[in-house]
Amino acid sequence: MKFCVLAKISKRTVSFWYQSDSNPYAPLKMKESNEIPLYFYVNGNDFIFGAAARERFYKNDPYAYGNYFEIVKDPSKHFIIYGNQKPVKQLFYYGIEQYLSHFLNTVIYKADSIESYRQQFPLRFLFDDDIEDNEKSLIETLFQEAGYFNLDRVGYNHTLFNILTQKQVLPNNKAILLMNGIDDVLYLKLYKNSKANVLGSAKLVGQGADPRVKILADMIVEYIILQNSYLSINKENEISFLLPFCAGLLQNINPIINGEAELSDGNRYWFNVRERNLNDRLHYYANDGMIFTAIDDLLKVNNLSVDDVMILLGSEEINTLYFTEKLLKKYHHVIALQPLDVKDTMQSVFQEIASTNYSVKIKAPAAAPVMTRPPLPTPKSPPPLPPKKESSAPKSVNIPRLPELKVPQSTKNNSVKPPPLPPKKS
C-alpha cells in the first residue's frame, strides 16, 4: 500500500493530513479534529499530546508542557518517560509519532509497531510562516536522528502560485507579495514571480488581523473578564488566540454578536457584544500606516513600483472586505485567497508527492547536519598462530592402567532351600 502523512506545524498547533493509494487526501483525525494544540503531558509511562495535556498545563500540573518552541531554548530542561531522561525537545517527536502510530493502526490497519516503518515512512512537513529556519532544522533533525529517512519539506507557496497562475488569478509578469496573519503577527514575503525565491520579508507584531477582527476579539475578552472576575488570564494572548474565531463571526455579522468563545486553555465562555460599539471603536483605530510603510520599504529595496506587484491576502484574519478596501486605496492589485484555492493547492501537493512514488527525499538541514555512522571495517582473518615450542619440562610418563579386580561370585548366595511341601492326603 502506498501512503503519505503531512504535518503542518505552527507555534501553537500541528495539523495532519494523509493520502493512501489513489484515494484523495483527507484530514487525519484523532477523536474530533486533525488540528492538535501543541501541549504535552508525561508522567511515568503516560504520554498525552493535545487538548487533554493543555487542560493539565493550565492547571499548573508540573508534568504538563506548553510553549514548546520557547522551552526548547533551555538545554537543561528534561522529561522522564519509561524511566529514561530525555531532552525536552523530544516531546514533539513523541507527539507526532503517536499520531503516526494511530494512522498505521486505524487507517491502513497495520498491527505492527511504528518501529518497523520508520525508515521508509513517507512523512512531509509543511511549516507555517511563524516557524523560523532554525526551528525547522530542529524538527527535521529530531526525526532523522530517530531513523526517519523518508522526509521532505513541502514547498506550499510555490504550489499555491502555480495553481493561481493556472487559474489566471496571478499574472506571470508581476511580483507577488504574500501576506499572512498568525497570532496577531503580520508576515510579508515578496517574490520576484511565481517561480522565484523570496526577495525580502517583514514581520509586524500586532498587525496580523483586520482591525475589526482585533477589536471584536478585544471586546469579547473584556466581556468574559467582566462576567468572570475570578479569571486570571493574559489579555493579549487571548485576543491573539480569538482572532480566527472573530474573523468567522464577521463573515455573517448581526447587530447583536453573541455565542460561546473558547479561550486558549480550552474552556468556553458566553459573550454578548454589539456591532454598534465595534464600529464606534473602529473610528479611533489609526495603525494602518505601519502596514503601508512595511510594504513600501519592501518594494523600494527591490526596485519595484506599486504597479509591479500583486498583493495576495492569505489568512482569514486579513482576508476581509474591510482590509482589502483599505489596501486598494493605495495599491492597485490586491486579491484574496479563496477556500477552493487552498483545497486545490493541497490536492496538488499530494499529487506531487505521489508522482515521486513516495520515494526517499531526506534533506539534512544546513544548520545541523546529521552525522552518519561510518561503515564498520570488513573483518580480516586472524594471522596464523606461531608454532609451538618444545617445553624443557620433562614429558609426562604414561602409567599403565591397573587390571580390573574381578569379584568372585559367591556359591553361597541363595544356598538355603525351602523344605518340601507335605504330601497331600487322599
From TrEMBL:
It comes from the Bacteria. Residues 372-386, 417-426 have a biased composition (Pro residues). Residues 370-426 are annotated as: Disordered. This is DUF3822 family protein. It comes from Pedobacter alluvionis. The lineage of its organism: Bacteria, Pseudomonadati, Bacteroidota, Sphingobacteriia, Sphingobacteriales.
